[in-house]
Structure formats: C-alpha cells, structure tokens
Amino acid sequence: MTQTSASLYSRLRRWLAPLALLAAAALQPAVAQQQPQFQAINPPIATDSGSKIEVIEFFSYGCPHCADFNPLIHAWASRLGPDVAFKKVPITFGRPAWTNVAKLYYALETTGDLAKLDEAVFKAIHEQRVNLFDPRTAEEWVGKQGADGKKFAEAFSSFGVNSKMSRAEQIARAYKVDGVPMVVVDGRYVVKGEAFKDVLRNADLLIEKIRAERAGKKK
Questions:
Q1: CA–CA distance, 55 with 185 (Å, rounded to integer)
Q2: Is the pTM of this model over 0.70?
Q3: For residues 119 and 108, is the Cβ–Cβ distance under 8 A?
Q4: 137 near 18, Cβ under 8 Å?
C-alpha cells in the first residue's frame, strides 16, 4: 500500500467509524424489543400438560384488570399452536367473594356453559353490577342466560368443583401468585410487560424460545 492510499484509508476509517456507531445504536432498540421480559421461576414447577408447552393465566372474575384482559388473552390463545396448552386458574386470595366466583368458574366449566358465559360473567359483574359473588344470585343469573340454573347449583356445591378449587389453591401457592392477571409459561417464566399487548408479545417470544430449546435437544 502506498503512502497516499494509506492516508486515504486512514481518513475513511475516521469518517466511517462514527457512522458505524450510529448504525449500531439505531439497531439496539430493535434487538432489545425482541427480548422477552420475564421473571424466571427457580426451581421450575412441573406442569400438568404433558409434552405440551403450558400457559396459565391466573385471574379472578372479581378483578377489573382481568375483565379488561380477558377478551385479549382469549383471542391470543385461539391462535396458539397444537403444541401449547392454555388454561386459566381462578384465584381467591382468601376472599370469600372471590372464592364464590372461582367456584362459579368451575361450575360453568362442569356444566359445559363456560365458553358461552365466560365473558358475560365479567360484564355482569363490572358493567351491569350484578352481584354474582352471591351463589343464589349467580344461580338465578345463569338461568336467565339460557343455561340450567339447577344443574349449575348442583355443580357449584359438588365434590368435583371443590376438588378443582383445592387444586387451584395448590397451584397458586406453588407459583406464589401475588397479583392478577398473571401469565406463566411452561412452569418456568412469569411473563412481564408494561401493557397487556406487551405481556402477550413476551409470552409469544417465550413460547418460541422453549420450542427452539426443545428442537435443539432433539437434534
């Protein structure tokens, strides 16, 4: 290399170096946005979904934030792949009123009316101010929605619903749930986010992370 070309090369490096730094700085936010926000669970908790990636939403019908989140997470869950199992676990925090609406959830699940009435329960409590925390009122309301109120009442007090309640309490203690809505992925990550859309995006990223890890182990 001649002295002239060496001098030109040196000047080019000086000119390009700041541009390279600016380009790298511009790319950092985009890269950071692809990193999921989460709190690791250590040690991980065994899931009930076999080989599937399990996603749990801890919630309560009594929680207004859960009411806002409910249509969003159900729309999101409807698009999950067949290798993902989504389930909801109602939380009581020891409150009698929340215990009753947790039983309401499992009673509707038992009678087969949950899919039809799940969103309606939130609207009844938080928009229409129906006192579904009272079992008798809940029975009457269920009947008015076109379901069998008597069948609901039997399920509400059944051994099966009480067993599901006990299991829900065990799961909540294992995960140390201290607020709702709370989303957990594969017994390993509590999903974080500034807004509901961020939580769901981070859940997607964590699911992809787990898929990649499992695919790597199979190779």
A1: 5
A2: yes
A3: no
A4: no
